[in-house]
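hey so u asked for the seq, here:
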Amino acid sequence: MFAHRLVVDDSLRPTDRGARFQIRLNWYRSLPLASLRVLDVTLDGTPVPAERIGVEVDGVRRALGELGPLIDVWWYVLDPATVHVDLGGPLAHGPHELTVRLGSRVPYIIIGPTIDDVYTVTDQLTTTQAA
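ran it, structure tokens below
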């Protein structure tokens, strides 16, 4: 639904341990961080393992595995999140192909007989950005 605006333009930057870039929420309303169910990152054709991905919202950086219980910490729709990827060393300067797949669980749209059957929106974008 919002794939065309998933990755913030010109946001890819090298860091001491890898890279960072910004993404936007793929829903039209703010959601708790616990709603983030999928965040896959592929850089130059190489998938980044989930344990090497961190998400920073409102100045606080967390590992993907820490987001599940955060039902009271919100990702506001107008605020981009910063994704940190640990590559073991800085990303080289120059153009890089970046693919991001984001799946957000919308907790208030129940689509099945149980409370766990909620709507999940998943978007993917591949872009080339210079670091």
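The longest strand covers residues 95-110. The chain has no helices and eleven strands.
lmk if thats what u needed
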